[in-house]
Amino acid sequence: MERKNMICIVCPIGCHLEVERIDEKVIVTGNQCNRGQAYGIKELTNPTRVLTSTVKVNNAHLSRLPIKTKGGVPKHKISQCIKEINSVELNAPVKLGQVVIKNIQGTGVDVIASRSI
C-alpha cells in the first residue's frame, strides 16, 4: 500500500488530496472535481512536468531563445532532458512554435520555441 498527500494544482480551488494505491487500484479522496481525481492518479503513477528553459541562439539580437516542452515529460527524465536542452545551439531566424528538439530523450514530447527571434 502506498499513500501520498498532495495539493491539486489543476484549478484554483487547490484541493487537499489523499491518494492511495492498494494493489493495482488508485483511490483519490478530497477532490471536488474529476480533474483532481485524474491529477492525483497521474501524480502517483506517472508524474510529468512541462519544462521551460532557454537555448543559445547565434546571429540574433538576443543571445538566448526561450523554449518549452510541448507536453509533460516524466519527472525521472527531467535532468537528462535539461542536459540535452543545454547542448543545443541554434542559428537565427527561429519561428514561434518551431521544433527545437524532436522527441526529447525518447519521451515522445517535442521541445518548441516560445517566441520568434
TrEMBL record:
<dbReference type="InterPro" id="IPR036593">
    <property type="entry name" value="CPE0013-like_sf"/>
</dbReference>
<dbReference type="Pfam" id="PF07892">
    <property type="entry name" value="DUF1667"/>
</dbReference>
<protein>
    <submittedName>
        <fullName>DUF1667 domain-containing protein</fullName>
    </submittedName>
</protein>
<dbReference type="InterPro" id="IPR012460">
    <property type="entry name" value="DUF1667"/>
</dbReference>
